[in-house]
Design a protein that fits this description.
alpha+beta, Alpha-Beta Plaits, 2 domains, 5-stranded mixed sheet, two-stranded antiparallel ribbon, 13 helices, 7 strands
């Protein structure tokens, strides 16, 4: 080896990825893999075993540190990307080097005067291996069941084909005259495009392509990183790969966090926080859409306004925790009584609304209403207690009983109060009389 090491040690990244995906039980495989990889070198047996021990220990330590920090292999959080960079590409190579480098030094692989430089190159090579291989392995493994649309697949082909072409020109001199060198930052637009459109999987793939072609160029003494000093070349390439990985992975994680936050805010704005059902705002939007469709296609829909009977005594006797449990159970039962295309919403308190789309006749409406009454009347067993509640329901026909969403809701509410006045635990159709 002559006092130098490989510019990037890909097995370090593959080993860490395998431990993160399959668990610690895979460490003997990493040990054996390092042994086999070093058999081609004329090294003493104790050196090979020492390197296998160091590499295995470094990978296990890196995986342990990441899991201790609740690492998600999807890399969809900023802290996951930073933890991989710090612990995976930082501490893990350092721990490996504490055994591997002394083993090589004792075998006389590197002169004593070059030990510090050799040690640094060793750590940098392992770190680059982690940054290049681990993200692409763990993101593709964790997202392997996610399908892309044909349009997105086409965009992906264009993106990565263009990236390969640009990297070939910049780092390997394709189509360039001898001596022409282009700046490495020309590939940076792809480090934005990839995570913006394809998330962490796109970012990690872009890093893999860029790093691979940059390394290929350096190995053939071509490209913007090549200098008269091998060590300086390594430093330039290492800095570039690190910056590219950090920019792309953190950007992808930031986009993922923003998307998750957006969905969460939409959920809060349009859904009931307790039951997860649609709230009043989303119900009114769906009512307006349904009303327009009913007029357009001469169809028939129905709105059912429900109020629980006997819910207040439950809250007063057993407390709000049991009361919340009742509301959650009622929400589940209501959803079980209707089709997937229908809407179940909670307006607040113990008031619910069911919107039945495109029903054919009155018999179907009454069948659904009877099913709801029977289902709600089934005793609930919550927190070691048996709870009994009923339901009063008002029914308004769409579009006969209202021209506007608010009018329909009001008329169904009027019919519900008539059901309560006539003995509760029943339903009544709206009537202007």
């Amino acid at each position: 080896m002559g006092g130098t090491v490989t510019l990037v040690w890909l097995p370090a990244g593959i080993g860490l990825a395998a431990l993160l995906i399959y668990g610690y039980r895979l460490w003997p495989g990493i040990f054996c893999g390092v042994v086999l990889a070093n058999l081609s070198f004329s090294l003493p047996v104790f050196t090979i075993l020492g390197m296998a021990t160091g590499s295995s220990l470094g990978g296990v330590a890196g995986a342990y540190l990441l899991r201790k920090r609740h690492f998600h292999p999807e890399l969809n959080r900023i802290k996951d990307a930073l933890n991989l960079i710090i612990h995976g590409a930082g501490f893990s190579p350092i721990i490996s080097s504490l055994i591997d480098v002394p083993s090589l030094w004792l075998a006389g692989v590197t002169p004593k005067g070059e030990l510090a430089s050799f040690w640094l190159q060793f750590i940098m090579g392992d770190a680059m291996g982690v940054l290049v291989m681990t993200p692409v392995c763990i993101t593709w493994a964790s997202l392997r069941n996610r399908k892309l649309s044909l349009q997105r697949q086409s965009e992906g082909i264009i993106l990565f084909s263009s990236l390969t072409l640009v990297c070939g020109i910049v780092f390997n001199g394709w189509f360039l005259s001898a001596g022409t060198v282009l700046p490495a930052f020309l590939v940076y637009p792809f480090l934005v495009w990839a995570p913006l459109r394809f998330g962490t999987r796109g970012a990690s793939t872009a890093i893999f392509i860029i790093s691979g072609l940059a390394l290929f160029g350096v190995a053939h003494q071509v490209g913007p990183f090549v200098t008269h000093s091998t060590f300086h070349t390594l430093i330039l390439l290492w800095l570039f790969v690190n910056v590219a990985a950090i920019v792309s992975l953190v950007l992808a994680a930031s986009i993922s966090e923003l998307t998750t936050a957006k969905h969460y805010l939409e959920q809060l704005a349009l859904h009931d926080s307790l039951t997860g059902l649609d709230n009043r705002l989303l119900l009114m939007e769906k009512l307006a859409e349904n009303l327009a469709q009913v007029h357009r296609y001469d169809a028939q829909s129905v709105i059912l306004y429900l109020d629980l009977d006997g819910f207040k005594p439950v809250n007063d006797s057993f407390g709000h925790e049991v009361g919340d449990g009742v509301l959650i159970e009622v929400a589940k039962r209501l959803k079980s009584c209707v089709r997937d295309v229908d809407t179940v919403a909670r307006l607040g308190g113990d008031e619910f609304v069911v919107l039945l789309h495109n029903l054919s006749n009155t018999y179907t409406i009454e069948t659904v209403a009877d099913r709801i009454v029977e289902t709600i009347n089934i005793p609930m067993h919550l927190f070691g207690k048996t709870i009994n509640v009923g339901v009063s329901m008002g029914i308004a026909m769409i579009p006969q009983d209202g021209d506007y969403p608010h009018q329909l809701l009001k008329n169904a509410d009027i019919a519900m109060y008539r059901a309560k006045q006539r003995g509760k635990n029943q339903y009544q159709f709206y009537s202007r009389q």
